[in-house]
Amino acid sequence: MAKTKLIISVYHYDETRPKENFPIGDAAVKLEPLGLTEEAIDKTFSLTNPNNGKSEGEATLRFVCLAPEDALRILEESVYEYQHCRVFTQWEALTNPGRWSTSDGKKFTETLEEAAALVNSEEGWTVTNTWSIMSTRDDPDGWQYATTLDSPFWHAKNTSSLFLLRRRTWHRTLNRWPPGCTPSPLGHHNPATSTSATGSSTKDSTSGGSPRSPSPGPVSVRRASFDAAAEANRSGSPSARAARIYNATPGRSESPSANARDGNRRPSMDRGTAGAGGSSGKGSTSERTTSNRS
């Protein structure tokens, strides 16, 4: 560990405008001088723009040294939302057998909360990223099209008048934090320009139509969230995100962080949101990166 360096890259990241994403700054962290232990410590580092070498503010990171069996674990949960075509491409929420289903398509419910209860059967997990749409390259709203519910093929584009059904994946991320290690208010701060901004929110139509894209701030993530009274689509927490983006697939999968897959004890880093408290809750995002060398 004496010669190990951890390279942290902070990005302006907007899922709705991928061509406008660009790096904010990098920081090279020598792990040995940190004196890592099983108690979490926060350290602040200067960021340097990789393109011009100029200073781009600071990033605060949390470090903790953990054994593989104690490391942070990540759980991905996903469900399907369905709509059916009525007349002239007018899409409405599917009522029979239900608007929502588990990722295997075997259990249907009327609400997202009921579907979430079917996939979330374990205790001790904290929601870190609330329900959000799984966008595709062909459809920013994530819809796939088919002729019947039991169709083995779901198409990314609506290219046939026989496609009377469509579905899309919603997923969320949950964390199980190691003992004594919890989220902290971490982030990126530029003394010249604040990156904290929130886009305006727009509501989904009562007929089950696709939510409109929110108006993103300078650093934002396209997300959607649900409450018991209404379905609302809003922009995500402003975030200067690390380069590693954890993409979920339909179904639920539990995967340890990188340090848990190695038998050696190694430090892990928890990077929080920019300009806001990085913790569990709706609309919050966090990335965890571990060193690849020991």
Automatic annotation (TrEMBL):
Sequence segments annotated as region (Disordered): 181-294
Biased composition (Low complexity): 193-223, 282-294
Protein name in UniProt: Uncharacterized protein
Protein's organism: Spumella elongata
Taxonomic lineage: Eukaryota, Sar, Stramenopiles, Ochrophyta, Chrysophyceae
